[in-house]
Amino acid sequence: MKIDLTQKIAIVTGSSKGIGAAIAKELAACGAIVIVTYHSAASDADGVVDAIRETGGQAIALQADMARHTDIIDLLKQVKERFGKLDVLVNNAGIARFGPIEAVTEGDFLEQYRVNVLGPMLTIKESLKYFPPTGGSIINISSVGGQNPGPYTSIYTSSKAALNALTVSLSRELVNRHIRVNTVAPGPTDTEGSKALGLAGSAIEKDMIAAIPMGRFGKPNEIAPVVAFLASDNAGWITGEKLAVSGGMR
């Protein structure tokens, strides 16, 4: 099945590395013009753009804190000025902090909910000004943990559960604007982020792998094609859904 996103304008938030970078590259390979957003890793974002251009794709990098309303407004205005519209929005930017509930602070809670829930909500709100009358596609990147939370992940997984609910509600609210809203929920994935959490070789990693029927972590390039499908007209009758890409983990 060919995925054709030719000349579609696509924003992928938090796409300087990991799953976001793989999604940006996949959308570009399908013909989209991709806006790679980054918070602070400018060189990584430039590397993603260079990789896309080297294979004949089109992309630019723009800086934004996707949990700051003013940054979001400015980002979307820049996209409008450069490209005139928006067709695809992938809310990928997110953070994870794991630990026992006794160690959780108010700051931990607010930071994760600000980035993982408030950020996508504000980005969707502002993006509605720029989708054409024919509509478009919004894909929220959640986590299989939003449905099946493990220990020591209460704040992160509850934020992803909130994102799942946001997807369903907005899919029903925006249907008359011809905007489809779906969620992709990855399972544990081998990324820079998972390494930064110290999962490699840990007991937590072993427990996670034991819970995955396919017996391994996923790879970012195994998640990206699912996002490209949902962004395309091939998924024209799909909205309000959550697709797990998790090696069978539930």
Automatic annotation (TrEMBL):
The keyword Oxidoreductase applies. Pfam families: adh_short_C2. Its EC number is 1.1.1.47. Residues 8-191 form the Ketoreductase domain. CDD domains: SDR_c (cd05233). Gene3D superfamilies: NAD(P)-binding Rossmann-like Domain. PROSITE patterns: ADH_SHORT. GO terms for molecular function: glucose 1-dehydrogenase [NAD(P)+] activity. Keywords: Oxidoreductase. It comes from the Bacteria. Belongs to the short-chain dehydrogenases/reductases (SDR) family. This is Glucose 1-dehydrogenase 2. It comes from Dyadobacter helix. The lineage of its organism: Bacteria, Pseudomonadati, Bacteroidota, Cytophagia, Cytophagales.
